[in-house]
Design a protein that fits this description.
The complex is a heterodimer of chains A (396) and B (418). Chain A is an alpha/beta fold. Chain A has two domains: 192 residues, no CATH class; 193 residues, Translation initiation factor eif-2b, domain 2 (Rossmann fold, 3-Layer(aba) Sandwich), CATH 3.40.50. Helices cover 51% and strands 10% of the residues of chain A. Chain A has a seven-stranded mixed sheet with strand order 3-2-1-4-7-9-10, sandwiched between helices. Chain A has a three-stranded antiparallel sheet with strand order 5-6-8. The two termini of chain A are 38 Å apart. Chain B is of the alpha/beta class. Chain B folds into two domains: 193 residues, Four Helix Bundle (Hemerythrin (Met), subunit A) (Up-down Bundle), CATH 1.20.120.420; 182 residues, Translation initiation factor eif-2b, domain 2 (Rossmann fold, 3-Layer(aba) Sandwich), CATH 3.40.50.10470. Chain B is built from 16 helices and ten strands. In chain B, the strands form two sheets. In chain B, strands 3-2-1-4-7-9-10 form a seven-stranded mixed sheet. The chains are: A alpha/beta (396), B alpha/beta (418). The interface between A and B is large, with 41 and 31 residues.
């Protein structure tokens, strides 16, 4: 049973969202029954964020293979493409424009970060908007971003991306451009460049992070993070000699995927089951993790298990480094583990579980800042306390 | 030109032979040297800032390579580079503002700007220039950045903004740039000279009546800090740990007594025994790293641990020239230097133990005499710099003020060449 946290922040947030539902273009209004597959609000059962992740990074397991062999290989893929393109056509012609569909289309691209998809979707809102003043446009954008945020409350980078873009719109437009149309085109242009910015951010982080990897060190990695992979890749390309321990990363086994990628780079990898972290911590020189979101306290929200690894590392005096792009900085201040909307994710235990037995299906945890050593971001190498400073500067 | 060259070589030689030591002395000499490098550098009409930066960088690399332990030298090189960029920017924006006024008025007349380009130019250029200096932030993440400035490693020394402006009065501007830079370097030198007094001014805020202060070894900053409190009629006692193997604590104790302070001399090994009677630990530092960690004279980590054990505030005094923008994990940060064993042992008495001729060919007795300790940021309660008191986690902010991101990698080029 999910315990309500003592703080009522979350409760208030839920109230607010339920009140807003009729005002905003909530997904349920737009969703025609036929579109259940793509537009079903996923937060009831499984986190959409983790569904996407699973689709993008899922490791091919044996049961998946058997399923795939049973089906005709190409067919399903074609189907999906066709359905997504037909969605796009539909949204163009038939029904009014929907941010969520747009977002979903962008989200399908495996190389695109969630925040980038969000900002692209908001750019599409600007493009299709018929507003004639900045104020109208802002209101429209606000509605769109609210509906996006409420569609998937579990994705922190989606929220952070929306907030960042909204902040950019309100801060710059009014001051620098007198002409509404030029401001509009400017916003769209910047939004479309954001994908590039995010790639560049990853490269900067890789450059900064690889300095901390020294020859002969052993790095423990938890979860599959593109940034962490990029850091390790850069270090390997720079002829650093190091060894990586990958946790298995149950339930989606993303550690296996990371170890595959690292093996391709000829980096020595050892796989650990998630419970072997403390056992092997004495061999480890540093812990590297990515982050789903970096919160205002400087702590991170990341895949389940990060907290316990950070605790073990802290008690053994090993540094814990976090690699995260700065657009993952979110204005959240979780007070404890249960203080966030839980992102749920099914867990396959391989055997049937009796219905009386509860299963903890939350997909991520919160690691408080005192257990983190440094954050590698595209803003530089930061100590956790800098995060709040950056956020305050932006949202002041 | 040859004049500067010989000056540089002389200083490098001094650094290599450890003739000049101590962060303040080396920092000051480095700043003076760089000032003469700048003043003698002949600069062309275009890309003047670039030329200056290249010259300073070239000299800086040599200086840093000469004695990497003196982190202050590298800091000063970076500070001077930052000054050049800063002055160049302020000149460019001033020129831009002039150009812009005319450009905007033109636009108003014609009213033919379908593209946003001319309207943008002013803001965009200013933003671009700003982004080269200001550390990247969330605010500027979505703002327009020209590609050259966006990635710190590929930026071609900030000279491109210079090239863009084709103002007529280049001659006067080149002289102005140099003049401004030298002026600013002079200010920097003055800052280094007066940092002790500025730190000492804050002494009364931190030292109270009847307190017991512990310090280890000798630091001019600490001496002045304590004396300043004494002059303001605070009565307090000082415990001085002698600071083996150089025993500089003895000198400090002598000086403190000469100025009428109640002083107690203790051995380094008595620190844990005495710490429970201490109200505050005040020490100097060799360098302060970007994460708030301190490179300090050997023995201070022990003091810091003792202070933490007994919840005694551990205060570090450091002039701003000791702030280093690098992390202790960076490979170019040399954390330690091994000094001569003669400070520990008398060669005469131990000569037979260290006889290379007998036995296996290597002596049985080894003497290791490291000069520095690394104190992790979590053990430090407060930094007092010439700008005031700061938390260790705040160091990044000061560093962002003093250095520009492009200069941090100064030493990476130096490493392979040496």
């Amino acid at each position: 049973m999910w315990r309500r946290s003592a703080s009522f922040i979350l409760d208030k947030r839920e109230d607010a969202s339920s009140q807003q539902e009729p005002l905003t273009l909530s997904p349920s209004q737009i969703t025609a029954p036929a579109m259940t597959e793509t537009l079903r609000n996923p937060s009831t059962n499984v986190s959409a964020y983790y569904q996407t992740r699973a689709a993008h990074y899922g490791v091919i397991t044996s049961d998946w293979l058997s399923q795939a062999q049973a089906a005709v290989g190409q067919h399903s893929v074609e189907n999906e493409v066709r359905s997504s393109s037909s969605n796009a056509v539909d949204s163009g012609s038939g029904r009014p424009f929907s941010v969520i569909e747009e977002f979903n289309n962008w989200r399908k691209q495996p190389d695109l970060a969630e925040a980038v998809a969000a900002i692209r979707a908001l750019a599409a809102v600007i493009r299709s908007s018929e507003a004639t003043t900045m104020m109208e446009l802002e209101i429209e954008l606000k509605k769109a971003s609210d509906s996006l945020k409420s569609w998937d409350t579990t994705s922190i980078s989606l929220t952070a991306g929306c907030d960042l873009f909204m902040r950019y719109v309100t801060r710059t437009s009014a001051l620098e451009y007198e002409d509404f149309n030029s401001a509009k085109s400017r916003l769209i242009e910047r939004a479309e460049k954001f994908g590039e910015i995010s790639c560049k951010a990853r490269r900067i982080i890789a450059m900064l992070g690889q300095d901390f990897i020294f020859d002969g060190c052993t790095i423990l990695v938890h979860g599959f993070s593109r940034v962490v992979l990029e850091v390790l890749k850069t270090a390997a390309l720079n002829k650093k000699l190091f060894r990586v321990f990958c946790t298995e990363g149950r339930p989606d086994r993303c550690g296996l995927r990371l170890s595959n990628e690292l093996a391709k780079l000829d980096v020595p990898v050892k796989l650990l089951i998630d419970s072997a972290v403390a056992y092997s911590m004495d061999e480890v020189d540093m812990v590297f993790v990515g982050a789903d979101g970096v919160v205002e306290s400087g702590g991170i929200i990341n895949m389940m298990g990060t907290y316990q690894i950070a605790l073990v590392a802290h008690s053994m005096n090993k540094p814990v480094y976090v690699a995260a792009e700065s657009y993952k900085f979110a204005r959240l201040y979780p007070l404890d583990q249960k203080d966030m909307a839980p992102a749920l994710r099914p867990i396959d235990f391989g055997v049937p579980i009796p219905s009386k037995v509860e299963v903890e299906t939350s997909a991520r945890d919160y690691t408080p800042p005192q257990y983190l050593t440094l954050l590698f971001t595209d803003l530089g190498v930061l100590s956790p306390s800098v995060v709040s400073d950056e956020l305050i500067q932006l949202y002041l | 030109m040859p004049d500067v060259h010989s000056l540089v070589n002389e200083f490098i030689l001094k650094l290599k032979k450890r003739k000049v030591e101590g962060s303040q002395a080396t920092a000051r000499l480095a700043a003076v040297l760089l000032r003469s490098v700048i003043s003698q550098q002949r600069i062309g009409y275009t890309n003047q800032a670039g030329a200056l930066i290249d010259a300073v960088k070239a000299v800086g690399e040599q200086l840093v390579a000469a004695n990497p332990v003196e982190i202050a030298v590298g800091n000063i090189v970076r500070r001077v580079l930052h000054i050049i960029r800063d002055e160049d920017l302020s000149l460019t924006t001033a020129a831009m503002a002039g150009l812009n006024l005319s450009a905007v008025s033109d636009d108003d007349d014609d009213d033919t700007s379908p593209d946003d380009h001319p309207v943008l130019s002013a803001a965009a250029v200013a933003a671009a220039a700003r982004s080269t200096l200001r550390p990247p932030s969330l605010q500027s993440l979505l703002e327009d950045m020209p590609d050259s400035a966006a990635v710190p490693h590929t930026s071609s020394s900030g000279g491109d903004s210079e090239g863009k402006s084709k103002s007529a009065d280049k001659n006067s501007r080149s002289r102005k740039l140099k003049h401004d830079v030298i002026e600013a370097v002079n200010e920097l030198i003055q800052d280094i000279d007066t940092c002790h007094e500025q730190i000492a001014e804050q002494a009364v805020e931190h030292i109270h009546h009847n307190e017991v202060i512990l310090t280890l070894g000798s630091s001019r900053t600490v001496l002045q800090f304590l004396c300043a409190a004494r002059e303001k009629k605070r009565s307090f006692r000082v415990f001085v740990a002698e600071g083996a193997p150089r025993y500089q604590g003895h000198l400090l104790a002598k000086e403190l007594v000469a100025r009428g302070l109640q002083t107690t001399l203790i051995t380094d090994s008595a620190i844990f025994a005495m710490i429970s009677r201490v109200n505050m630990v005040i020490v100097g530092a060799h360098a302060v790293m970007a994460n708030g960690g301190v490179i300090a004279p050997v023995g201070l980590n022990m003091v810091a641990l003792a202070a933490q054990r007994h919840a005694v505030p551990f205060v570090v005094l450091a002039g701003s020239h000791k702030l280093c923008p690098l992390y202790p994990h960076n490979p170019e940060v040399l954390l330690n230097e091994l000094r001569s064993p003669s400070e520990l042992l008398d060669f005469g008495e131990f000569s037979d133990c260290m006889d290379f001729g007998s036995g296996s060919g290597s002596p049985l007795l080894h003497v290791v005499n490291p000069a520095f300790d690394y104190v992790p940021p979590k053990l430090v309660s407060l930094f007092i710099t010439d700008t005031g008191g700061h938390n260790p986690s705040y160091m990044y902010r000061l560093i962002a003020d003093y250095y520009s991101a492009d200069d941090l990698v100064l030493q990476r080029k130096a490493a392979p060449s040496t």
